[in-house]
What does this fold into?
Amino acid sequence: MFLSVFDMFKVGIGPSSSHTIGPMVAAARFLAHLRGLPFAVAGLRASLHGSLAFTGVGHATDRAVILGLAGFVPDDYDAALAESALARIREERHVTPPGLPVLAFDPARDLIFDRGPALPGHANGMILRGLDAQGDIITEVTYYSIGGGFVLTAEELAAGADKAEGAPVPHPFSSAAEMLHMAAASGLSIAAMKRENELTRRSAAEIDRGLARIWEVMNACIDRGLAADGILPGGLKVRRRAHAIHQRLLAERGLNLTPPHVVNDWMSTYAMAVNEENAAGGQVVTAPTNGAAGVVPATIRYWLDHVPGAQPSRVGEFLLTAAAIGGLIKFNASISGAEAGCQAEVGSASAMAAAGLAAVLGGTPEQIENAAEIALEHHLGMTCDPIRGLVQVPCIERNGLGTIKAVSAASLALRGDGKHLVPLDAAIETMRQTGEDMSHKYKETALGGLAVNVPNC
It folds into this structure.
């Protein structure tokens, strides 16, 4: 099994990888489909289904689809240009994507939130249609946004493309048990095995540049979040808190009266800074999703800023190790909140961060696997119940607590020799089963939990 570190960590925009990045990617794929047709289309229509319909407005899915059909893509998203384009499209009721004629598209009429039964392939489904001049459908494609910004057509999903092996790699582990066996047989670390697998797709220089870019965007997101103040968009009137907390922490630094547990506030503040930026629609890195984007960067920042001996040159090792664990979770369970609840998002992120931290702190492969298991185990059953469908409450604070759990899990694992009762594979399978059993009310539909028990206006 191979899933690239650059698939697990993707530069994109907030507030959601499955509900914002995924639909924008699907729209880009549909435009490519239209460019390859032997006939021309005159208009477009889009329908959103399942979780995309129920929480799409709060997750900016409507904006993502409109902008995606206009030719915008997540990795070079320009917020100012996007705002201008949205206003123009809503007024003129057409889009002009590159390489295609002017296409009729009135968001008020042609973007449909279908809150009936979900499409059969996944909770996050959407159908994009091309119309002729009379408004009749002449082509359509069904897409599924399966979490973390990954998008498959209905045909690809049915063919098992999400489990496809791809070209051979030297260390093709598809379970934690296989990963540990291969590490023991090769004498390599998890990060080193992951890097050798990556080298079958990219040069060493490309890998190094890509990893540096991932951390650059992550770190910049933390800094922007720590500097920003004000109210987050969406109507809940949630105040940004990372800036004020960070200022108080800076003022207290070095005071003998500061209790040791305040380091938890540093971790939480780094994570909250990222997720406040995500909630505001800023540039983030899926890690493995937008809703859980704060945990991995916050853990890295904690390590660099607060742990003696931390070396920035080893951030790549952290990311490669984290991606190896994230790939196992995605391959054997899910990283989608709409599919398995927040255990699949923040739980996965915490496991990835715990593994990465254990690695750079000198952990053995067995200790790294133990760290990931501890972190994931103690997120099992966590629901996804965003108030008003916004990636704000409880999502922002939840990333802070996921970071604290990641650091604690790594620390506990490093106190042992790697031997433990519950293997990571068992925790992953338990998460998969729990997600299957979980009511759809608690899987990013905003139909249960905090979403209905807290006033949202």
